[in-house]
Amino acid sequence: MNIQIIAIPKIEERRGNLSVIENDTVPFDIKRVYYLYDVPSGAERGGHAHKNLQQFLVALSGSFDVVLNDGKEEKIVTLNKPYEGLLINSGIWRELQNFSSGSVCLVVASEVYIEDDYIRDFDQFKNYSTRK
Ligand code: TYD
């Protein structure tokens, strides 16, 4: 599956840790950053694929599961470290679930927000992925 765990450089000090995401941390030019927070217990996010957009997800705090499907296989990745992230390439269905209390999901994206880039219907996604 076209996903990858990428380590984020970490600067450890007695004063605490610092991690930095720069353009060369991810294999795309960063166009947008957003974050999910105050996710109620049991809620799910995502539930879509992107035609072009690539994303890099980081659990800044707490943990959550990312359920991935490329039309052929399903994989579940648990994110729970602020110093590593999950690269999701385009054409992959993702659902985010099992958010721990107080968790924060940072999303670094290769594109600005374009609703037309989303595939929000799973059957449509299956057709889209078999055509590729
Ligand atoms: P969505 O991408 O569906 O959220 P998630 O995948 O985390 O469940 O977006 C939720 C809503 O927020 C939707 O109405 C579109 C809007 N939105 C923006 O306006 N700008 C953005 O950059 C993003 C990511 C979402």
Descriptive account of the structure:
Residues 1-128 form the Sugar 3,4-ketoisomerase QdtA cupin domain. InterPro entries: QdtA_cupin_dom (IPR008894), RmlC-like_jellyroll (IPR014710), RmlC_Cupin_sf (IPR011051). This is FdtA/QdtA family cupin domain-containing protein. The longest helix has 10 residues, at 122-131. The two termini are 14 Å apart. The radius of gyration is 15 Å and the shape is globular. The chain is mainly beta and 132 residues long. 8% of the residues lie in helices and 46% in strands. It has one helix at residues 122-131, and strands spanning 3-7, 10-13, 16-19, 32-36, 45-50, 55-61, 64-69, 74-79, 84-88, 93-97, 104-109, 118-119. It has one helix and twelve strands, in the order E-E-E-E-E-E-E-E-E-E-E-E-H. The strands form three sheets. The chain has a five-stranded antiparallel beta sheet, with no helix packed on it. It binds thymidine-5'-diphosphate (TYD). Thymidine-5'-diphosphate (TYD) is lined by residues 34, 36, 45-46, 113.
Summarize the structure.
With 132 residues, the protein is mainly beta.
Bound molecules: thymidine-5'-diphosphate
Strand order of the biggest β-sheet: 1-9-6-11-4
Distance between the termini: 14 Å
Provide a count of the helices.
1
* Biggest β-sheet description: 5 strands, antiparallel
**Could you tell me the strand content as a percent range?**
over 45%
Helix content: under 10%
Order of helices and strands: EEEEEEEEEEEEH
C-alpha Rg, in Å? 15 Å
Give the integer mean of the pLDDT values. Answer: 97
Low-pLDDT residue intervals, each spanning 5 or more residues: none
> What is the molecular shape?
globular
Q: Name the assembly state.
A: single chain
Instruction: Specify the structural class.
Output: mainly beta
Domain Sugar 3,4-ketoisomerase QdtA cupin: 1-128
Protein name: FdtA/QdtA family cupin domain-containing protein
